Amino acid sequence: MDRVQATTFAITGPQRLASDASTFNQWLAAKRTNDAQLQRMLVCRFSPEYRTAFDAWLKTAPFTTPSAPPGPAYMPEYHNPQLEQAAHLNEEAAAAEEKGTHARHTAEEYLGAAVLFALVLFLVAVSQRFRLWGVRIAAIALAVGLLGYAL
């Protein structure tokens, strides 16, 4: 279930960034035409995380400083909660998968031992049906050998 949720977040995270980037491109066009009302409206449409990075980006004087980051998504203040959640859920899923693999290995060992012990009991029971002592001893010896291997 964690993998499914992680995949969902891994898809919605880039979609959210693409939406913010598209809105940012429209904001740049509105800035170029000096449409302050459209600029304010577009800024209100940013996601909260992108808005924080946008405000920090504006403080770098990006239109006059050549070393300024190319956009808010490149700012250290920007983080995408969906991508972070996807990474977290993937880590949880990997841990659960590891536990499951260990449990399967334990179950396989238990099943193998149970089959060997059942075979030992079967050989001991069958050995009592034989009339020849040599066959009885051979069946019991085989049972003892399997018991030793199982232990």
- The helical percent reads over 70%
Q: Calculate the terminal CA-CA distance, rounded to whole Å.
A: 38 Å
Tally of individual helices: 5
Q: Report low-confidence residues grouped into runs of 5 or more.
A: none
Task: Spell out the helices and strands N to C.
Answer: HHHHH
Mean pLDDT: 91
Tell me the number of strands.
0
**Total domain units:** 2
| Morphology | rod-shaped
Strand content: under 5%
Largest sheet: number of strands, sense, barrel closure: none
Q: What integer value in Å does the Rg equal? A: 34 Å
User: Which structural class do you get from the secondary structure elements?
Assistant: mainly alpha
What does this 3D model show about the protein?
The chain is mainly alpha-helical and 151 residues long. The chain has two domains: 2-79, no CATH class; 83-150, no CATH class. Helices cover 77% and strands 0% of the residues. It is built from five helices and no strands. It has helices spanning 2-32, 36-44, 48-59, 81-127, 133-150. Helix 1 (2-32) runs antiparallel to helix 2, helix 1 runs antiparallel to helix 4 (81-127) and helix 4 (81-127) runs antiparallel to helix 5. The protein is rod-shaped.
